[in-house]
Amino acid sequence: NSNTTLVNEFILVAFSELQHLQVFLSAFILLSYIICVTGNIIIIILIKVDPLLHTPMYLYISVFAVLEIIFVTVTLPKLLDNLIFRKKKISILGCFTQMYVFNGLGISECYLLAVMAFDRDLAINNPLRYSSIMKKELCFKLAVYPWIAGFIISFLTTLCTAHLNFCGPNEVNHFFCDVGPLQSLACSDLYVRKVAVLLTISKIRSVDGKKKAFSTCSSHLTVASLFFGTTIIVYATPIDSQFDKFLALIYTVLTPLLNPFIYTLRNKAVKSALKRSIETFTGFLA
Questions:
Q1: Higher-confidence residue: 37 or 255?
Q2: The pLDDT value given to residue 216
Q3: What pLDDT is stored for residue 234 in this prediction?
Q4: Residue 245 and residue 114: Cα distance in Å, rounded?
Q5: In the chain, which ranges are continuous DSSP H helix?
Q6: CA 12, CA 89: separation in Å to the nearest integer?
Q7: Are 210 and 118 in contact (CB under 8 A)?
Q8: How far apart (Å, rounded) are the C-alpha atoms in residues 105 and 158?
Q9: Which of 195, 163, 153 is nearest to 96 (CA)?
Q10: Closest by Cα among 16, 22, 39, 21 to 255
Q11: pLDDT per position as a tens digit, 101-153
Q12: Given CA atoms 63, 259, 227, 158 in this order, what sign does their dihedral have?
């Protein structure tokens, strides 16, 4: 229709209905972001400087830590800007870029967890062949391929969503741009819903892998259940942004916040490396 006016920006509603909790939410999210980024940076540095952690599993953990840092950086700074400075507007390009990177990282994370499950399964069930199979070249490929697969799938999803017409209203009832909240605003055929389901399936398929990889630690299973449980509800059920955005806080804030503690407090090798690093640092200062 030639008289149709398409929107050129979106307004992220976020948690406007919780005005009385804005200060608390802002403080919690800011603190969570700082802890998550700092914790993952510490993990990356420990794995880099400690020779005892130069194994395939810890390579994947360091890559996972990088993913987590970018994952929270894609959404939380914008949310803080929204809550603190009331800057709710986001351009069309900015919105789709955020959606592309967020979903790409989320899918990459799932595939990387499947790789980690494969690595642990091989190490436990085929210890004699482990070193001959997990050579440097294969380890590198297994660390890179999840990124490639994740961003290819996310590109297809974003491309389909970008081809929808958005002619108003332009208020996204969420704190970041995602497929579901955006498609609810579209004024054209919502064929992209099928792509969103495929995206969900690609995430769900890694649940068993993650549980298998971390079956010896109940805390890992708790985090896996939180992340995948909420993701399944958000992506595989009818759209309800009012409820979905609160669930999204779990896999965008809570789960990334817990992961650094899991890899340090519940991992003997990382705890030992952290202790050695602290002793070296204090000895240097003395």
A1: 37
A2: 38
A3: 65
A4: 27
A5: 22-49, 56-85, 92-125, 127-133, 136-162, 179-183, 192-204, 207-213, 218-236, 241-249, 255-265, 268-285
A6: 6
A7: no
A8: 13
A9: 163
A10: 39
A11: 999 999 998 888 888 888 888 888 888 898 899 999 999 999 999 999 999 99
A12: negative
Q: Which of 196, 95, 211, 202 is nearest to 146 (CA)?
A: 202
Superfamily of domain 9-285: Rhodopsin 7-helix transmembrane proteins (1.20.1070.10)
What is the token pair recorded at 286?
């003395």
pLDDT (0 to 100) of residue 161: 85
**Kind and range of the H or E run holding 12:** strand 9-12
- CA distances to 224, 227, 273 from 174, rounded to whole Å, are 23, 18, 40
- Render 189-244 in DSSP notation, one character per residue: --THHHHHHHHHHHHHTTHHHHHHHTTT-HHHHHHHHHHHHHHHHHHHS---HHHH
Instruction: Quick: pLDDT tens for 188-231.
Output: 655 545 555 455 545 544 444 444 444 434 545 555 666 666 66
- Cross-strand partners of 91: 9
pLDDT score at 263: 67
The ranges assigned to domains in the chain are 9-285
Structure tokens at 161: 């969503």
